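Appendix B. Raw example, untouched.
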Amino acid sequence: MTGHSYRDGVEAGLSRSVAAVSVLFAVNWATVPLSGDRPPPGVTAVAVAFVALCLHLVVRGIRVRLNGADALAAVAVAVVAHPVLVLAGGAPYVVIGQRCMPTVSAVLLAAGFLPRTAGRWACLAALAAQLGTSWPADGPAAAAEGIWPPVATAVAATVLGPLMRAAGEGADRSERRAAAARAEAARAAARREAHRDFQGMLHDEVSAALRAIGQPGIAAERVREAARGAVAAIAGARAPGGEEGRTDLASLVRALVPPQGIRAGIAADRVAPVPYEVAEAAIGAAREALRNVADHARARTVRVDLTAHERGTGFVLCITDDGSGFVREELRGSSVGVRRSMMRRMEAVGGRAEVLSTPGRGTAVRLEWPAPADGERQGVRDRDAAGRTGATGGTADKAEKAARPVPLKVQQMNAAIGDVRRPLAAVCLPFLLVMGIVAVIHTRHVPGALWLTAWYAVLAAVTVALLLRAGSGIGRGAAWAACAFAVGGALGSFLVLPLAGLADYTSWPVGAVTPLLTLLVIVRPAREALTAMALEQAGVVLIVLTGPPIAPTFGGTVALALPALSAPALGVFMGLAIGRTVARLGGVTTRANADRAAALAGEAVRDARAALHRRRLADLGEEVLPFLDATATGLRSPQDPEVRDTARLLGYAVRDEIHIPGVLDRPARDLLSAARTAGCVVTIQSDADDPHPPALLRLLLTTALGTGPTPAELVLSVTASADTVDAALVVLPGDGPRADALREAVAGLSAVVEDATESTWVEARVRTV
């Protein structure tokens, strides 16, 4: 599928999330000169290089897409930065929270944008550079503690990147399959509808014209008029659809042939081109209305008016006569032509037909088609696709969805990356686990801090519970309650934890809220998590400003506090970028794919209709069309007995095609024509309007008529159910050789053949599914 894809949305989300993280890292490292005295040149060089890298990632992550080259650049900066910081004596100028940022950036890009094996080696190189230089400089405990954010980031990125890409590719495959299924369903529905339309054309136009030609006593001009109408109907069926399947209805209305001997007026305003199937339905219904005027109305005048619909799109086509009229209540039970040729045709294309009549005051037929608006059209497509492809979700599923509506944002994310809980787990669970270890380490030796461990255990449980609910939506009350609990515990931790702990991981509760806020900013409205983060940040700033100093200068205080404040902001902004980008592109992609699927379905409809019409008209055009054309132009006279005999035989062939469509090929029609010419009375009956499997019916007819003498009578009855077709063939009188030939023909089928002096009969059944 061309155009937008789910994979593109995933790549954009990953790139933008790295850009958001890089903004925070750049701001943090830009404060390094504020940490105290002027830092050594080596520290300044590292700060400049890392800030430049972050700005580069911000621009590329937003404007284009990040790739492996960006990942290698980040790894190179991390591998070089840590030894330079140690050799330059950067510990007093760069706190441990800042020192891990180049490593976090490196592992995030390496795991997300390098091939799997190369990405793992790159992650190990960046982690080793930080651990190897921090161990001798800070001691084993501080080094191990400082390495956990990069390790957790590497784990999350290693799981999240491939998972999101695989989900995007899977969504693309599913969308392609769904589009193909919708197109095939539309194609099948179009074949059925085209078949019914074709049957109507055969009955209303071709068969009626052949009957008129074959009956003596009808005026020649009236016969030629019927023949011209049939030729026009066949010509219309030969070429279904113009540019983009649309047709100029006004020109078709002006070409309508009014009944002979009745004064007629045709007025056709210019209306917007309409889909071919709509024009076909309207013209077919109008022809039937004019035929009814000629046959039943006893009218002096008839008027045809085409006007634009009151909406400004669509049309209203009215056929009005001043004839005898009728009682409307009699219409429902008596007029098959009105019900099938007018009402069904218009209803099938989204329009309506209304017949208004009063005895002695004439009749008005109103054909209306209001073109649907774009949103209505898409809704119709969706409902049609659901109806055609079967119920993909049962009544219980619908009831469940109605009882528990999924928020639009979650729907879009589920559409873009599959079950949103899987990538959320990859983001949240590693940080929850590592933060739990840090909590235990930093509370067991702090008097009065044991309650913080219990607080974190509850916070982790709440985060996991909300994560499990993320796929179907998290309630607003639950989200706000979780935020209040998290922020309250984080700020309350400073009742027992020292403010100086902001320089290291002693202030871990400030960052412990990160997994929860990241989860909420992705699946809930962003304002909730952003408000909670802002309240926590403001509370920490207020505590720092009102508490004992943690650095000799204000700049030093900012440099020490900023990395701790960046921990929750890091997760929130990263999640915000992922959530918004994937949801936005998921919505764009869904709409683009829906439009493309609709285009494919429309193309399939036109192709299916054209193919069916071409196939059904191939043999018909060889015999019937030249005959009708010759009659319409006066080359053949309906007064000629031979012409009337030909018309009767062709009329039989057309009626056979109506009863058992697609069954009779040219040899079978020749056999039937020869039998009728020889005096055989052939009756074909069918209880269904849909095409039947042709092989069995053709086999029965050709075997019965191609063996032995011409029978006196042949009756073929066809009964169809949901999954079977039953055929009964009776041939009078009985004939032994014919019965033997029929037994041989149906051998291996579910069939019974009996023969007697009076008749030979066959009962056979075939499955259609």
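End of appendix B.
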